[in-house]
Structure prediction request, 959 residues.
Amino acid sequence: MTDRENGGQEESLNRKLAELAWVLQETQLKITELSGGKIDPRPSQSEKGETELESFKRHLLEQKRARKADAEMMAGILDALPAHVAVLDEEGYIVEINEAWKKFGHANHLLSSSMGIGTNYISLCEAVTGEEKGDALAVAEGIRAVINGSKVNFVLEYPCHTPARKHWFQMTVTPLGKGTRGVVIMHTDITERVVSEQKNREFAQKYHMLFVNHPHPMWVYDLDTLEILAVNNVALHEYGYTEEEFLGMTLEDLHPEGQLTALHENISKVSEGIDKAGVWLHKTKDGRVIYVEVTSHTSTFEGRRTEFASAVNVTERIKAENALRESENRFRMVLEDVPDVGIQGYTPEGTIFYWNRASEQIYGYTSEEAIGKNLFDLLIPSELRATVRERTRVALANGGIIPPEEWELLHKDGSRISLYTSHAIVRRPGHPPELFDMDVDLSLRNELQRRIAQSEQRLNLVMKATVDSIYDWNLTAGNVWWNDAFYEHFGHDPQTVPRGIESWSNNIHPEDREMVISSIDRAVEGHGEEWEERYRFLKADGTHAWVIDRGFVARDEEGRAVRMVGGIRDITKEVALEEQLRQSQRLEAVGHLTGGLAHDFNNLLTVVLGNTELLLEELDAGNRLRPLVEMIFQATERGSELTHRLLAFARRQALDPKVIDVSQLVSSMDSMLRRTLGEHIEIELIRGAGLWRVQVDPSQLESAILNLCINSRDAMLHGGKLTIETANVSINTEYADRNLEVSPGQYVLIAVSDTGDGIPREIIERVFEPFFTTKGEGKGTGLGMSMVYGFVKQSKGHIKVYSEPGEGTVVRIYLPRALGEVVEEIPSTKHSRPLGGNEVILLVEDDELVRHFAEFQLISLGYLVFVASNGPEALDVLQQHPEIDLLFTDIVMPGGMNGRQLADRAKELRPDLKVLYTSGYTDNAIVHHGRLDPGAKLLGKPYGKAELARKIREVLGES
Prediction:
């Protein structure tokens, strides 16, 4: 309490005592009056001479002093407490506060009446608004609960910020005790603790940021056991281990075995504070070895003596430093050993610090004699020294250069040397500027100029001699230089071609441009040195050439592409040859397939054709079934024609080549062509004079020409002109190089041209494929051109198709020249009836149907027949029956022995045995390059009875 408050209470007490004393005096008088003086109500005196009233009064004063002393002691205790303390009565009024409470109110600009004695604290809390309202209401509720006895105490931590500073307090409400229902409120300033906790949280966040998420690998390890106790995320990523694996390792596990001794020595020297451990080699999980620069700091972690380590991967830096050292060494070696160029390094004052071997040769001074001397005094003539010093000073001051000049400088022997000298200023951060003087003895200049001129001449000759288009692309400036071959080959005018890269990129085929540009951009932006691409390039005449482009990229020290030198080679011919080869291989594969199909089909047709002939012989002209059988016979003949076309395409038909006059054959076809093609087609024959002879099967050539003419007719539905031209031509090496399947030499040309619709470019390469046709459904088999192709190729010739949509088509057949004489055709004798005989024939056929048919036909012709299904079986029959006159065998048979091999073995047993072959597919057994082997006789399938009889008599009748 304050002195003023104590004085007010004392005055009140004295007033009350005075009132009591007056009441006491009045009471004494009343007692005396009522007792008639018998009772003396006045107080008696004590031993001290005091009356009872005076003694009572003294007692009251002593109690007052004691209470004042207790109050002062309690006030002193409360004031000594650092917490803000207030005492509330059972209704929530403040009845006592300590000094800290008052200071808190003054410090926070709160009126003493709002926080002082007599204020209802509960009401004060309930009146709070704003952000602190929630905490204030909780305080009011807590105080009531403690006063009412429903809570033993109440504790709340809350912020109490002021404009001056931020505070946090802990409020504790406890009962007053001693039978009273008041409470003691204590506000404890916990700002320091809260701030400390916040700092700890911030430290934890910084730890997480600086350690766990640090961009460099970090770990903590025990200095005594080397056990790794903590590791951050980057270390896990860098080294490839999981956290569990890493924490199960020791520091030794990260080091190669050869470093363990050095590692332990380093750890033994660890002292307090930061330790820059230097560069070490570390092992990763995948076996890589990396360079790391380690920095560590001693600390205590989880009660252990530890070291906190950070490792920066410096592998690339070490490699770069090694490369730099190698480069510097290489540079020194180059400077030292560069021939004929004297190099001196000197300070701005002229002191020489570098002197290479060439300088020794030029000036006569050894490096020991020159280094440390003054360059101006040693080499510069006296009349030039002032000028050279001034030029050096100006260049250093202005950041310029000393212009190169031809000077006469001093030799050791006093003579003067004519030199071309240039100076370079080198400025390194943190170092004074350095100058380098490079001198070339001009006695070598003429030799160098001669060599340069010779090199340039040689380069120009190479450029002119090469067929490639050479370019030099300055990637920095964007300029491109082309050699003369570029302009000559592609036809572009040097005056109109831009100097930039557009001279190349604008001439790339539009369909290839994006692909090529992307490819070369990747090469330039990457790290490689070579680039190659294949694309189409535009020529000045509007056509495109296939080219292969190879370039070599030159890069600067930082790996940036600065130059690209390369050449473009025209590969149009090679591309055409590749396409021809693919087309040839495709047709060859289809040929093998169609030949096999024709073989099986011919076996079936042989049976059908033969049996149809037998039926026709048995049926009278008026028989109602005869038209059906005739229809079957016609269909069989058409099937036979189809197989012949397939074999022609597959180059498996047996040709009967003769030396003929092509002009004569074409002339003989004139009337037939006019009847076949119709009056709406104009036909012109152009026959070359002195036409060479060719050796071909005339009937097949006639069929081929007829097929081409019919195709031309179908392309001229509304009329047009058909031209057949013959001429002598020579195919040169250049043409043969562009066309794989023809050899240089002399040929007879047969050209069939029309003025029809023409063939679209996208399908012209497919015209020779079997069953490919542009005619409508049911209007063509698609085998005409295939047959022509196969016949020409089997005759060692060449065929080429040229066409323009809407302009017409020309097909050129080239047949090799033959030197023999023309062979006159001998008409074959036609027999009205098949001729038979009584000889003995051995029939060998693997197909059961064909075997039974042929056996029946031979027997019907009067022959005695033995049969076999394969070669080994036939040899057994031949040995058992020496009376056999003729071996009639299929060529293609299973069992490892074909008809030709069977005939050879039979001839060894019976040299006089006659042999007749039959086949629907020759398979190169007795037919080679379209010609029957000498002496071989062949009856092709399918065959009828008449053909069989004539061929048997022909073979048996030979002497």
